[in-house]
Amino acid sequence: MSRKYLLLILAFGILLAVPSVIHDTFFLRIVTEAILWIGLAISWDVLAGYTGYLNFGHGAFFGIGAYTTALLMKLCGWSFFFVLPVAGVAAGILALIAGIPTLRLKGAYFAIATWAMALAIQQVAWSWILPGGPTA
Questions:
Q1: Cα(70)–Cα(78) distance, rounded to whole angstroms?
Q2: What is the distance of C-alpha 94 from the center of its chain?
Q3: Separation of alpha carbons 55 and 49, rounded Å
Q4: d(CA 71, CA 15)
Q5: Which residues are CB-contacts of 86 (< 8 A; sequence separation ≥ 6)?
Q6: Does the model's pTM come out above 0.85?
Q7: Read out DSSP for the chain?
């Protein structure tokens, strides 16, 4: 592993440790959002940068993890630190299910398929009755 990646992992680890040290809610919100966006950017870099695939549905799996986290914490009362890996696994399983047929496509066909998948996931989230549906 190169020195650059080790420094990035170290910086990410420091950001993860900040909430246990700093208790200012505004600063914690900024750090939390920074961690979320860094994670999304790293995953985008892996997919688009190393494989060359243009994935318009990339944010959908980010949303699935966030939606799973919110549902399990709100409806089941689970702890955030227990929900976090569960939400990651849920998003990963759905990404695997969606990825098996779409990764056989190339170029614009792959981009269009991932865009359609993202729109379908958005429609499900908007109309799903369990968490309160569109009226929540």
A1: 10
A2: 12
A3: 11
A4: 25
A5: 68, 72, 78
A6: no
A7: --HHHHHHHHHHHHHHHHHHH---HHHHHHHHHHHHHHHHHHHHIIIIIII----TTHHHHHHHHHHHHHHHHHHS---HHHHHHHHHHHHHHHHHHHHHHHTT--THHHHHHHHHHHHHHHHHHHH-TTTTGGG-
| Tokens encoding 91 | 């998003």
Residues 28-53 have pLDDT tens digits of: 788 778 878 888 888 888 878 888 87
- Structure-token pair, residue 13: 């680890």
The residue assigned the tokens 């702890």 is 79
Work out the end-to-end distance of the chain between its first and last CA atoms, rounded to an integer number of angstroms: 46
Q: Which tens digits make up the pLDDT trace of 111-128?
A: 899 899 889 888 888 887
Q: Which residue has the tokens 């060359």?
A: 52
